[in-house]
Design a protein that fits this description.
homodimer, 164 residues, mainly beta, Jelly Rolls, three-stranded antiparallel beta sheet, 2 helices, globular
Chain lengths: 164, 164
């Protein structure tokens, strides 16, 4: 974990963690924390960044990431066996979750079970940023097949929302 | 997890989780989510509440809680083997962490390793609210002995800060 301040007076714990403060810099960036690509490659997403706030450790095998979608952007339409717990931190937007589209506002929390199609979009003309909790050991996302997309598009509201 | 909306059209995953949205109501309370006591008993804390946003599951054995300290209040001065990852969501305040006192502002993140004395105080005259990630399986907090307190008080800044 990149940090702006660590405190050498405090011994590391048995997991090698240091007491530290990761300072919020401005506009949902943190001091000395890399602003990363959402994914290393692909064309299934648009205008979205990733910051890893906590990368997990043996006793807390859970990562905490902050994703931010610029106005008009979106995450990948995907599903996977692992679950997500998401909290909106900045702005508002929409999520396609399973079979429906829902508006999301700041501090709303979304629970995405395994095997559930989902996609986030910044549809409100403002940046849409959210925390996402995820297991450090997890399966890779699955993209929809043409048959999956045809099935999802049977609902006209979903057809109008999803981006592939 | 209490939720205002769950979506029956989406099958539960193998962990029994449902697709759901926990709506932020107002002022860092969530719809239908109980506002809990910080701890069931004790006199080592003051004016602090707890809300459990996510209670963990087998694949993500990590709970996400929101604590809020009213102006002038504080959490318990304690330490334990388990780690905390904290993100300030509301207002500002201060933390005693290991051997020093630090100011904290909104969206600052604190990493508290195992075995580290810590205490949060709402010292800025405003509510001080923060997320706290913690393992679902964890040891109980230890309170300082009179000898521990004497030791901590050798630093006058710490002596002035801590509440026991």
């Amino acid at each position: 974990m990149a940090t702006a301040e660590t405190f050498d007076a405090v011994k590391d714990d048995k997991e090698g963690c240091k007491a530290s403060i990761l300072r919020h810099a401005r506009d949902f960036t943190w001091q000395d924390l890399p602003l990363l690509r959402y994914k290393e490659q692909g064309t299934t997403f648009k205008d979205i960044t990733r910051q890893v706030l906590f990368d997990g450790c043996s006793s807390v095998p859970t990562a905490l990431r902050y994703f931010e979608i610029a106005p008009g952007g979106h995450s990948t339409l995907e599903r996977h066996d692992h679950i997500h717990v998401v909290m909106v931190l900045r702005g508002e937007g929409e999520v396609f979750l399973g079979s429906e589209v829902h508006r999301l506002a700041t501090h709303d929390i979304v629970h995405i079970p395994g095997g559930t199609w989902h996609q986030f979009r910044a549809t409100a003309g403002i940046s849409f940023g959210f925390l996402c909790l995820v297991a450090t050991q997890r399966d890779r996302p699955q993209l929809p097949t043409p048959e999956d997309i045809e099935c999802l598009r049977q609902n006209p509201l979903v057809a109008a929302f999803i981006r592939t």
